[in-house]
């Protein structure tokens, strides 16, 4: 099993000593983000920093906000994956703390996994989005993924799952096809903690995605905003914490 953890953006497994005094704002700053070996992408006004407290009783969480540009990005990047044919990832997210109610025109990416080289003009293997519901204050997780549909090579999951108000734990299991259309994506929203894998919140099977090989780069934070997000929610922060990626086993924490 290959495992890569980043709890509150920096963990002892990465050779870091921690953040200092838990809950102290002085202990949480941009230097905490050095745990991410790919660094920080803060483009066209995007802002990424560490803030206190964390989302799981740790000292710090990551705060990500976008500027007004259509290409604005505010994320941290992990380059440790090695074209992984199976990639499992987990993170905590709190979209409600500082973001005003979303409208039908709002969406923004929270996580992206990409291949090293493009296939059919695309590198993206999966992109997880925050999208609205018809009820103010209740948001959903949706995702798109590369697929060999012969036209756009991009498929969209059509059954988003609602988030709870406050902190949500999100876990995905992405498997690349080995022959024909036998790739799959499973995901869990706020599953019970523990090492026993429960039934997923939802899944997509029969994906023909072998052309994209496997995950080489992962990005956590905000990006790919809808135009209305850039105008209505620029400067509003989404909080992230407890990123963990594995290749085989269920994460569940």
How would you explain this protein's 3D organization?
By secondary structure, the protein is mostly beta strands. The chain has a domain at 41-47 and 67-236: Jelly Rolls, CATH 2.60.120. It is built from one helix and 16 strands. It has one helix at 227-232; strands at residues 3-6, 40-43, 47-51, 61-65, 73-78, 86-94, 108-119, 122-132, 139-146, 154-156, 161-162, 168-175, 183-189, 202-207, 217-223, 238-246. The strands form two sheets. Strands 1, 3, 4, 6, 12, 13, 14 and 16 form an eight-stranded antiparallel beta sheet that branches. Strands 2, 5, 7, 8, 9, 10, 11 and 15 form an eight-stranded antiparallel beta sheet that branches. The chain is globular and about 45 Å long. The relative contact order is 0.25. Mean pLDDT is 86; it is low at 1-26.
Shape: globular
Termini, distance in Å? Answer: 17 Å
CATH class of the domain at 41-47 and 67-236: Mainly Beta
Specify the structural class. Answer: mainly beta
Question: Any low-confidence stretches, pLDDT <50, length ≥5?
Answer: 1-26
Number of strands: 16
Largest sheet: 8 strands, antiparallel
SSE blueprint:
Blueprint: E1 3-6, E2 40-43, E3 47-51, E4 61-65, E5 73-78, E6 86-94, E7 108-119, E8 122-132, E9 139-146, E10 154-156, E11 161-162, E12 168-175, E13 183-189, E14 202-207, E15 217-223, H1 227-232, E16 238-246
Antiparallel strand pairs: 1-16, 2-5, 3-4, 4-16, 5-15, 6-12, 6-16, 7-8, 7-15, 8-9, 9-10, 9-11, 12-13, 13-14
Key words describing this protein structure:
253 residues; mainly beta; Jelly Rolls; eight-stranded antiparallel beta sheet; 1 helix; globular
């Amino acid at each position: 099993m290959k495992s890569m953890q980043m709890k509150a953006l920096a963990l002892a497994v990465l050779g870091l000593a921690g953040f200092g005094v838990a809950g102290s704002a002085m202990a949480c700053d941009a230097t905490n983000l050095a745990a991410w070996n790919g660094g920080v992408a803060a483009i066209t006004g995007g802002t990424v920093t560490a803030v206190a407290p964390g989302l799981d009783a740790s000292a710090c969480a990551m705060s990500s906000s976008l500027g007004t540009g259509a290409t604005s990005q505010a994320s941290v990047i992990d380059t440790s994956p090695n074209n992984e044919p199976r990639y499992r990832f987990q993170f905590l997210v709190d979209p409600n703390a500082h973001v005003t109610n979303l409208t039908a025109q709002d969406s923004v990416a929270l996580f992206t996994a990409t291949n090293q080289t493009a296939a059919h003009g695309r590198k993206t293997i999966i992109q997880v989005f925050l999208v609205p519901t018809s009820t103010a204050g209740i948001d959903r997780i949706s995702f798109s993924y590369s697929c060999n549909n012969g036209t756009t090579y991009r498929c969209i999951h059509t059954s988003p799952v609602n988030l709870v108000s406050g902190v949500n734990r999100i876990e995905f299991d992405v498997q690349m096809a080995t022959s024909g259309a036998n790739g799959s994506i499973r995901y869990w929203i706020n599953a019970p903690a523990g090492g026993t894998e429960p039934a997923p919140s939802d899944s997509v099977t029969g994906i023909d995605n072998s052309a994209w090989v496997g995950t080489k780069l992962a990005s956590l934070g905000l990006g790919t905003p809808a135009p209305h997000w850039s105008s209505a929610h620029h400067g509003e922060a989404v909080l992230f914490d407890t990123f963990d990626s594995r290749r085989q086993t269920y994460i569940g924490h």
